[in-house]
Structure formats: structure tokens, C-alpha cells
């Protein structure tokens, strides 16, 4: 019909496009690999670790695809700050959490206490 427009929904090229993830232990072997994989699938990723200087990020941009956050996940206040900063930087709620931070089991995660 003349004048009628049809909305064409362009399918997302990547399955996790528009999704926001937090990966803890992102300086370590497993966390680093998972963070990279999530990014390859289109997710924006907050990479968190005690050793944030070892995290590679692509620098600053108006719409960052990744951020590096120094956070000790055994400290509830730092976990809350990690979540808050991730939501603020990506202007989004968090969709995915991958908790790889750890050592020999002497550190205790605070994620179990985080309920908001
Ligand atoms: N690699 C394996 O084969 C294997 C097998 C079984 C279990 N795990 C467990 O899986 C987890 C990840 O393994 P990995 O090989 O990637 O270890 P990894 O040591 O390479 O990386 C762990 C990362 O966690 C960070 N981290 C430790 N405590 C933290 C804290 N309180 N807050 C924030 N970051 C902290 C460290 O700085 C490090 O970068 C570990 O808990 C490990 O014990 C690993």
C-alpha cells in the first residue's frame, strides 16, 4: 500500500550484543579467557581483579566495550562498588556474572551476600 512503511528488524550479528558482563579474576588464566570469549560474542565486559594492572583494555571511548576494575571480591563494599561502577560505565544493568577470582580457597567471595 502506498505510504506504508515496513519495519525491518536487523538481526544482531553477535549473540551477546547489548549484554553487559562482569568477570572476576580477569587477570588470571580462566577469567582472562572467558572475558575475551564473551567480548568476541559481543558483550561489554567489566574485568575485575586484585591485579588490575595486568588487564588489557582498549582505552577510553565514549561507549567503552570493556573496563578494568580493581576489586577484592572478599570485601562486600568493593563488590558493591564493582556492580555500581559497571552499571554506570555501561549505562546498563548487568546480565552476566562470571566469578573466576580465587586462589587456594582461603579467600571468601562476598557475592553470596550481595542481593540487590
Ligand atoms: N586452572 C585450573 O586448572 C583450575 C582447576 C580447578 C579450579 N580452579 C580454580 O578456578 C579459579 C581460577 O583459576 P585460574 O587458573 O584462572 O587462576 P589464576 O590464579 O590464574 O587467576 C585467579 C585470579 O583471581 C584473582 N584473585 C584472587 N583473589 C581475588 C580476590 N579476592 N578478589 C579479586 N580477584 C582475586 C587473582 O589476582 C588472579 O588474577 C581459581 O579459584 C582456581 O583455584 C582452577
From TrEMBL:
Taxonomy, superkingdom: Eukaryota
GO terms for MF: oxidoreductase activity, acting on CH-OH group of donors
Annotated signal sequence range: none
Pfam family, one: adh_short
Key word Membrane present: no
Keyword Oxidoreductase attributed: yes
Keywords of this entry: Oxidoreductase
Gene3D superfamilies: NAD(P)-binding Rossmann-like Domain (3.40.50.720)
SUPFAM superfamilies: NAD(P)-binding Rossmann-fold domains
Family note: Belongs to the short-chain dehydrogenases/reductases (SDR) family.
Listed name of the protein: Uncharacterized protein
Higher taxonomy: Eukaryota, Viridiplantae, Streptophyta, Embryophyta, Tracheophyta
